[in-house]
């Protein structure tokens, strides 16, 4: 079988209008108008390459039937969704089937083909493909219940930040509590913020992210708060708690060597932030009280550059205000720890053909979002809350976040 990867096309399937084919994905910065795919783990561009046969179509049919590519177009083009589904299959074989030699790199060579043929012979379907919003895991149900409890609580009891938000006419990609949407038909990402009130110039990756998708929950870690060193300014930006709309997109869109898949505010104006106006290197309610030289409240501001992106393996916090996810480890749909450290890159420098590293657990996050998004859904709801909000549900409690983070960092 031939080696297939991003840009491979079956005979006669190379699009005549490459720009139009890529337009739904290439909507940011330097990607606009590009006629090649961005292979962000190799930091290179991949052209459309047509070959004989229909191997890409057969691959797509397998990925669809095995539960990794539910919204397959069956177009014979190895595009971004096909690449994401291949990586999810490889990760499933590596982690769930305990094949440590498998690296989820999105390249279908002889090793990946052998596992595909084995799955076909055995008629296997992944557990990820068997779940849905109507057939959820218990953890998914617990989280959805907590989200709805949180809405009721914060509509009735908004703190100083949410009161200020409620007073604004325009909130852009940030929603007021009464408009928070927790429909199971949407993708939900939950950020759990910890230690934000502690003053420090170099913040750790000590926060959690829970992806609720297709009736399952996957757990990641990183940071919701900026590191002063990365922000390079005294009044660093903190994304406010609450719900925000994010769309599929790219990060570092002005630096060609660094462009990679990420999430961006759904409104081009951005999301609502509050700066560290009192310069204590922390996020506290005092920041909402600071006034300017004319006595006017500085308050909340809209910011277009608060993305959700990668932070290496998690050794350093690469956030200047963005929400950042580490690549070293994650918890799967069964809440089982998955160690990605053997192939997870520490930084851009290891994302080369020779190093054969990937962004590790961060790729699992972006691939799940791309593959399991319901039809016509190109956004997710990101709900950021503080650790103490977990006390609203008996299924979580005060030490849930610290225990989960310690587990994720134990590899």
TrEMBL record:
Boundaries of every Peptidoglycan binding-like domain copy: 52-114
Protein origin, superkingdom: Bacteria
Pfam families listed in its UniProt record: PG_binding_1 (PF01471)
Gene3D superfamilies, per the entry: PGBD-like superfamily/PGBD
Name recorded for this polypeptide: Peptidoglycan-binding protein
Organism expressing this protein natively: Tamlana crocina
């Amino acid at each position: 079988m031939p080696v297939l990867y991003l840009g491979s096309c079956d005979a006669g399937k190379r699009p005549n209008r490459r720009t139009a084919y890529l337009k739904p994905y290439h909507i940011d910065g330097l990607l606009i108008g590009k006629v090649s795919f961005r292979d962000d783990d190799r930091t290179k561009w991949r052209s459309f390459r047509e070959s004989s046969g229909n191997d890409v179509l057969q691959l797509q049919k397998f990925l669809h039937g095995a539960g990794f590519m539910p919204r397959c177009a069956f177009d014979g083009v190895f595009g971004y969704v096909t690449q994401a589904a291949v990586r999810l299959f490889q990760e499933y074989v590596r982690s769930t089937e305990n094949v440590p030699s498998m690296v989820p790199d999105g390249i279908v060579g002889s090793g990946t083909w052998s596992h595909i043929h084995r799955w076909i012979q055995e008629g296997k379907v992944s557990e990820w493909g068997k779940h849905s919003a109507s057939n959820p895991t218990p953890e998914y149900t617990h989280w959805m219940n907590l989200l709805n409890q949180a809405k009721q609580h914060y509509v009735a009891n908004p703190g100083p930040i949410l009161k200020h938000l409620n007073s604004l006419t325009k909130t852009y990609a940030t929603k007021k509590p009464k408009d928070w949407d927790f429909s199971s038909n949407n993708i939900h990402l939950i950020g759990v913020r910890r230690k934000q009130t502690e003053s420090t110039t170099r913040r750790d990756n000590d926060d959690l992210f829970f992806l609720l998708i297709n009736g399952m929950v996957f757990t990641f870690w990183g940071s919701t708060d900026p590191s002063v060193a990365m922000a390079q300014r005294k009044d660093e930006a903190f994304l406010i708690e609450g719900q925000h709309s994010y769309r599929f997109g790219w990060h570092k869109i002005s630096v060609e060597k660094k462009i990679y898949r990420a999430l961006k505010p759904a409104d081009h104006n951005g999301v609502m932030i509050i700066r560290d106006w009192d310069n204590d290197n922390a996020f506290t309610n005092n920041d909402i009280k600071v006034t300017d030289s004319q006595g006017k409240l500085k308050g909340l501001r809209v910011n277009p550059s608060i993305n959700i992106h990668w932070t290496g393996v998690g050794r350093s916090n690469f956030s200047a205000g963005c929400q950042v996810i580490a690549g070293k480890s994650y918890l799967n749909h069964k809440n089982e720890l998955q160690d990605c450290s053997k192939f997870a890159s520490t930084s851009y420098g290891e994302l080369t053909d020779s190093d054969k590293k990937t962004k590790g657990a961060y790729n699992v996050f972006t691939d799940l979002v791309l593959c399991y998004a319901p039809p016509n859904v190109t956004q997710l709801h990101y709900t950021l809350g503080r650790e103490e909000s977990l006390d609203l549900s008996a299924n979580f409690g005060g030490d849930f976040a610290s225990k989960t983070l310690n587990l994720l960092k134990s590899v």
